[in-house]
TrEMBL record:
Keyword set, alphabetical order: Hydrolase, Membrane, Transmembrane, Transmembrane helix
Protein name: Glycoside hydrolase family 16 protein
Region spans: Disordered: 1-37
PANTHER family (UniProt xref): GLUCAN 1,3-BETA-GLUCOSIDASE, GLYCOSYL HYDROLASE-RELATED
Domain of life: Eukaryota
TM segment ranges: 91-112
BP GO terms, sorted: carbohydrate metabolic process
Single annotated GO MF: hydrolase activity, hydrolyzing O-glycosyl compounds
Signal peptide residues on this chain, from the entry's feature table: none
Domain GH16 as annotated: residue spans: 129-457
Polar residues composition bias: residue spans: 1-20
């Protein structure tokens, strides 16, 4: 057996070779050093930190290595800036401070100028309607009764009955309903002139006919249209209507204004102010349903040259629809401008400056399609606001359908074509599709109506 002295590096050669050759042992060659192993001197088995030469040697711990600070001692670092100061250094602070001061002063001036530029007119109240009575105040409101389509080919008959307009719980409801089937399924004549109820001046707007042979029918639905022509009008001022719009396919709710007198000629020469128009279809309707409202001004020398497209702006509801709650639809109107808004004057929809004559804005052709020369109907006033410089009254209504393009043909399974002579009949035949959409919220609900006259006009002295 080999003999080793504890703690010795290795056995002597004689001791290793003594005894029987059967027990001779050859000292193993140390393994090649791994170049990626711990460097020599850091407790490597082949370095200085090992118990050299013994596989059983006790490896003594290396003494701890201390971090030697290289920190510069106090007083050794030169501080030239503590010596004599450069007199120019102060501008490094002064110049930015001057810039900040000038910026704040300029911002304050701009804000002041902006506030000074905001016009706050003085007004006189003209109408403050909260519908607290049992019915509409007939001294203010007029229910229009017609079947002529109001120039748009609308499908409704407007009535003066409580079926289509009524006051309930301090609010006004305008609710479209289906026409009596007996008036449509059989040959009939609806003549509003017989009982004197028709409010139109043209006879054809007072008479409707069902002819089962050619497919013409009496208006397939009934609704209401109310105005303040007799009781409340303004020339410059403000209007605010708090309302919830209806939900129902092919409804056309509107809050708008027309001139008391057609001072400059027939529509649209005397102007029209649309505070709010919408469609009752849901938000998926491509043209915009009850999630979008629009404001428009109509003006032009004749109906074929209506420049409404120059003053038409849409406003989409944010994560909701205008039929899911009440909103304030407002208008502010003066000699210098006109704008509509929703809920607050800061959320403007349409804004138009009266900064040059409307004839110049329109850039109308020299003549109409028949070759008749077009004449400026507003030149005699010398006002840039003409034709919007006269008394206008308010209208609230819910129309249904039309043949004027308000609902595009071929969109969202529209059940009629505008140019078809049987458009109303086609609409009626599709009632099983659209009438169910009216059941839940198929009415416009008006909570309040307010109108103010601007000081200096119509006797308003503030």
């Amino acid at each position: 057996m080999d003999r080793f002295q504890t703690g010795s590096a290795t056995a002597t050669l004689a001791e290793r070779t003594s005894g029987s050759s059967d027990h001779d042992e050859i000292e193993p060659v140390p393994p090649a050093r791994n170049p990626f192993s711990t460097p020599v001197g850091y407790n490597s088995p082949y370095g200085f930190g090992s118990a050299r030469g013994s596989s059983t040697g006790f490896q003594q711990a290396q003494p701890p290595t201390y971090f030697h600070s290289r920190r510069i001692k106090k007083g050794e670092l030169e501080r030239p800036w503590l010596g004599k100061k450069d007199p120019k250094e102060k501008w490094v602070t002064i110049i930015p401070l001057i810039g900040i001061f000038v910026g704040l002063a300029l911002s304050g001036f701009l804000i002041y100028e902006g506030l000074q530029g905001v016009t706050n007119h003085v007004y006189c109240p003209v109408l403050d309607e909260d519908f607290s009575g049992a019915d509409l105040n007939s001294k203010v409101w007029t229910r229009e009764v017609e079947v002529g389509g109001y120039g748009n080919g609308q499908f409704e008959e407007t009535t003066n009955t409580n079926e289509n307009s009524y006051v309930k719980d301090g609010m006004l409801y305008i609710k479209p309903t289906l026409q009596d089937e007996s008036l449509i399924n059989n040959n009939n004549v609806l003549n509003l002139l017989q009982d004197g109820s028709c409010t139109a001046t043209d006879w054809y707007a007072c008479v409707a006919v069902t002819n089962t042979t050619n497919g013409t029918i009496i208006n397939p639905v009934k609704s209401a249209r109310l105005n303040t022509k007799v009781g409340a009008s303004i020339k410059y001022g403000r209007v605010e209507v708090v309302a919830q719009l209806p939900a129902g396919d092919w409804m056309w709710p509107a809050i708008w204004m027309l001139p008391v007198n057609n001072t400059y000629g027939d529509w649209p020469a005397s102007g029209e102010i649309d505070i709010m128009e919408a469609r009752g279809n849901n938000y998926t309707y491509p043209q915009g349903g009850n999630n979008i409202v629009s404001s428009t001004l109509h003006w032009g020398p004749d109906a074929d040259n209506d420049a409404w497209w120059q003053n038409n702006v849409k406003r989409e509801a944010l994560h909701t629809t205008y039929s899911s709650g009440f909103h304030t639809f407002g208008l502010e109107w003066s000699e210098k401008y006109i704008f509509s808004y929703i809920d607050t004057r800061l959320l403007q929809v349409l804004y138009t400056n009266f900064n040059k004559p409307f004839w110049q804005k329109g850039k109308f052709p020299v003549s109409d399609t028949n070759g008749t020369r077009l004449v400026d109907p507003w030149s005699q006033t010398g006002h840039d606001s003409t034709p919007f410089d006269q008394d206008f009254y308010l209208i609230l209504n819910v129309a249904v359908g039309s043949t004027n393009g308000w609902f595009d043909d071929g969109v969202a399974s529209k059940p009629w074509v505008d140019a078809s002579p049987s458009a109303k009949h086609d609409f009626w035949n599709a009632r099983n599709q659209w009438y169910p959409t009216w059941q839940k919220s198929g009415e416009m609900i008006i909570k309040s109506v307010k109108m103010w006259q601007q000081k200096g006009y119509n006797g308003c002295t503030g």
